[in-house]
Amino acid sequence: MTGTLFDKIWDAHLVAQRADGRDLVYIDRHVLHELHAPHAFEQLEKQRRPVRRPDLTFSMQDHTVATRPGRDDSTNPSGAAFIKAMREGSRRNDIRVFDIDDPEQGISHVVAPELGMVLPGATHAVPDSHASTVGGLGALAFGCGTTELAHILATQVMALRRPKRMLIRLEGRLGPQVTAKDVALRIIAELGVAGARGHVVEYAGAAVRTMPIESRMTLCNLNIEMGGRSGFVAPDDSTFSWIAGRPFAPQGVFWERALAHWRTLKSDDDAAFDREHVLDCSSLEPQITWGTDPSQVLGISGRVPDPSAVDPSRRAATESALAYMGLAPGMALAGLPVDRVFIGSCTNSRLPDLLAAAEVVRGRRVAEGVVAMVVPGSTSVKRAAEAAGLDRVFRDAGFFWGESGCSMCAGGNGDRGEPGERCVSTTNRNFEHRQGPKVRTHLVSPATAAATALAGRIADVRQVFAGQA
Amino acid sequence: MQPFTRHTGIAVPLIGDDINTDQIAPVQAMRQLKPDYRTLLFMRARRHDDGSENPDFVLNKPQFRQPGILVTGHNFGAGSSREAAVWGMLANDIRVIVARSFADIYRENCLQNGLLPIVLAAGAADAFEQRVVAVNGASPFTVDLESQRITGPGGPDIAFDLPAADRMRLLEGLDDIGLTLKHADEIAGWERRIAADQPWLQSAADHRT
Fold it and tell me: For A288-465, CATH number?
């Protein structure tokens, strides 16, 4: 029998088909966060239904937590009710909560993999659209809303319609200072914000195989920005060695059995995909968004579009994006002054992201007038970064070094820009007002963000290393 | 879940593609566990910076103050999975969204809440949109899920198609968890089988403790 890895994982988790024709797909790991879980706890309690598998469920405090050192529940006043409801709801339901002061607190999509909760070939659900971040380890992950979250708590399955399959092959070798973030932005630019709607994407090809696991997570994280239902990279030896020894990963004889199984997890050579897309990464330069959706992307040396020259169906959207972003048709982005730089979020807040940024920053200073922040993706990442001295590198340069959380990605914790500010950010969405009312967001890699903070202008990070900055 | 059989209401043309959940329900409006879902809907588009109403936004126009049906473009509900973007519709008595396509998670969230997500094919979508714009809120349309038809001013009935499974659940207002729990034995059986075959999946123990 031949098939895609997606179909193999789906079929292996298919419990039953429901009367209405939906597949009941078992969820091996369920990770919650405080912005949505309290409502689901309440729904279940009204229905007097228990949580079926609290032992496979974990609670994270990430969306509303303050990043200020010495924070507590109410440092972000509007977060306190969420944090408390999460803590109490989790305790009532016997779910382990990684609370605001837990040494392993952090963003759900960062914490679950780093603790070994995410396994190849396993299914994973989070009430958050960036759930597929953990696809970087070969897990099949689904984002969902609050009512579906309650459904998973009560049943440990999701009732789904089987999505279609897409293969994205990334060929070639990435140039210096070109990262998974740049690759993902280019893919979204080519396929559009709805390009993967209804599909589960398997990322394959030489460029993926050489990517470290954290980069694969960045790649899979952005899958939702083109509407993908899920996205993953088939596991390989680097996946297995990355997982080995993590506290929630299988150990001893179970590790050996798991490993033997994981080595079988791949799409067959003649597996049929509903769509295929190929990107040659060799000539890619660092990428940056110019507009108000993540498909409005340029190479760092590029110029923003002229609405009169684009397809008529995109003209109005282009004009409106340029107006919001305060850009003139045809202008270059490189050299544009910025007010704020943010390095963090489930997209780009793991240790290698911070290392890449620190490499650029080391021994230099943030430009006068620029507010620059680094927010590690987890308290564990923060600790590891501090052990490597990265906090000093950032602080000495004038960056704010924060406590872990989602922070400025969506501003749910009060971290946000001021109206009209131009913010260069390693996050995942450049939607209007997302990082604060009227804030103009440009999405980039950590290295590009770091170079931009130093220059005070949108910068080509390759020039920092060429000694031209 | 409240059942959906038919709904009559003013159809509001919110013409545009890729309208995302940050626009529909901004996260900054969700500062309380129970925000006012009625005023949260399209909050930024509805109000100027000084808090006054933006009279140009379609839902603020006098003829659309009591909406019932939202008519929009491709990829409606893209972005975040936040269900407030559906609850905000219901709080404004919008029970039907007619779009050219929906983002996957948003469509699921609609189905979970008795908000009917209708996708019309290109030709029918063009025709319906023109009629909605032309009637400009002067008289309502009726959406009937049993017959899968939209009736209203300006032309013949418009047929739409919803997968039978989703239709049944909406029509009967079925409790989704209850529907799944009819398979409780199969879920338990799957767990027993996997606990033997792939025990690492059925245990998420912290090996340090």
Answer: 3.30.499.10
